[in-house]
Design goal:
Elements (H helix, E strand, L loop, with lengths): L1 H5 L1 H4 L5 E4 L8 H5 L6 E4 L9 H6 L3 E3 L6 H16 L2 H9 L19 E5 L3 H12 L3 E5 L6 H7 L1 E3 L3 H7 L2 E4 L13 H6 L5 E4 L8 H9 L5 E4 L19 E3 L8 H20 L6 E2 L2
Parallel strand pairs: 1-2, 2-3, 4-5, 4-7, 5-6, 7-8, 8-9, 9-10
Antiparallel strand pairs: 3-11
Amino acid sequence: MKEYLDNKKFLGKKIRAIYMWYHKPVINEELLQSLPNLKIVASSGVGIDHLDLNLLSRYGVKVSNTPFVVSTDTADLGMALMLASSRRLVEGYQMAVSPATEYFPADWLGAEVSGATLGIVGMGTIGYKVAERAKAFEMKILYHNRNQRNKEEESAVGAIYCKKIDDLLQQSDFVLLSVNLTPQTHKLIGKRELELMKPTATLINISRGLVVDQDALVEALQNKVIKAAALDVTYPEPLPRDHPLLKLKNVIITPHIGSATKKTRHLMMENMTESIQAGLRGLPIPNEVTL
């Protein structure tokens, strides 16, 4: 980006595509005005909340993302967070390696995953893959989604549709968030929703940090409104080093690594390159994002 800014007049008319990794470069009107021949922005990952689709459309710029290649790894991480939190793996590791540990207490216990109730908020590709994995743990699966899945898909994983999110929150031992960040899902889980959850429940977020009201979450965890949280996403990322979430023992935070495996990252790059090539040739764009 620095090279472009230093040579804007020379490079501006030559750039026809933007390969956007981890939301960079930031695309705003000033940048678009300086790139008169821009045809496509290929963005990594699923979420497109960092892009102004209306603005890009006004400039005739198409957008693509990589929604399908990330779903398997992200679902795997969702299950990993559930297991790590329920069985207190981080605390257990710290106890096992601590120089101060002289014995392992017999009453140091976690919670069962097998047979527990999992509530999935957002039953898209990732949410459904989580359900497939949860079925192997003999979990009771509830889900809330804009649209109900067909009966065959529900039956395949034993999922029960909750039209109202409140019903799911009240019944679930684990609530897993797997939604896109939109104006409708911004702070979808706040003080009211957290208070609906069981005091023994765990919140798992593999979507976007802003889907949860973080201040309300801190308060709920400190006051034992819910038992625990396992978060692959926060806002901002990373959190300030003095943020209260970093000091709570009943919280696990990972550095937004849902798609972070070698194979998936390679496939994401391939997908982005294919979309750019198609966009520049005037061909149908794989995984095009439309308004």
